[in-house]
Amino acid sequence: MQEKKRLTREFFARDGIRVAKELLGKTLVHATPYGTARGILTEVESYMGETDKGSHAYGGRRTERTEPMYHQAGTSYVYLIYGMYHCMNIAVMSEGIPQAVLLRGLVPADAESEEVMRRLRLEELNMKQKRKNRELYTLKNYPASLDKHLSDGPGKLCIAMHISKADNDVDMVESPDFYLTEGIRVISSRIRIGKRIGIDYAEEAADYLWRFYL
Description:
Structural class: alpha+beta
Oligomer: single chain
Shape: globular
C-alpha cells in the first residue's frame, strides 16, 4: 500500500481548534508488535492552553507531566488516566504555548490495520479474563461489541494503536514509526461539535464546544 503524504510541522503549528477540525479524516500511523496500524481519526477535542480550565496546563502548570505540551508543534503528549488507560494528544501552535488536541476516536484505515487493532484489543480483554479465571477470547470467538467499539474512546484508541507512555514526547513530524498522514477528504458539513467529555471540574470551560467528530 502506497503511503500517503505525512503531515508537516506547518500543519500542527496553528491554533488548536483549527488543527483539531482538520485532523478529522487524517490517518494516525503507529508500529505495533503485529504490524503497522493505521487509523482514520473520527473524534478529537481541543485544549487551548494556560487560560483553558479544562487543560492540564491551565494557570501555567508546567510540570514533568505537561512538559510535552510546551514542546514544538507535532509532539506527542501521552498520559495515564485512572491508573490504567492512556490518552493520546498532539501539541500544536508553537513551542512554549501549551495547546494540544486529544485524539478521542478513530476507525481502521484498511483490513490489515483492523486485524492488528483487533489482536491488540483482544490482548487487553484477555488480561481481564485471566484475572476473573474465565475462558480466553480468540480471533474466532470474541464479543460482538468488540468490532463495533474497537477504538471509539481515547483509552480504546490507545490500546488498539499500541500507544503507551513509551510514545510520550515523540516528534511525530520526524518519527519513522509514529506519525500522521493525509487520509480521507472530509467536508465541513460532516463535522459535528459538542462539549468536551469528562471535564465537569472545568467550570465554564466544561461548556465550550471544542469537541469535533464525524
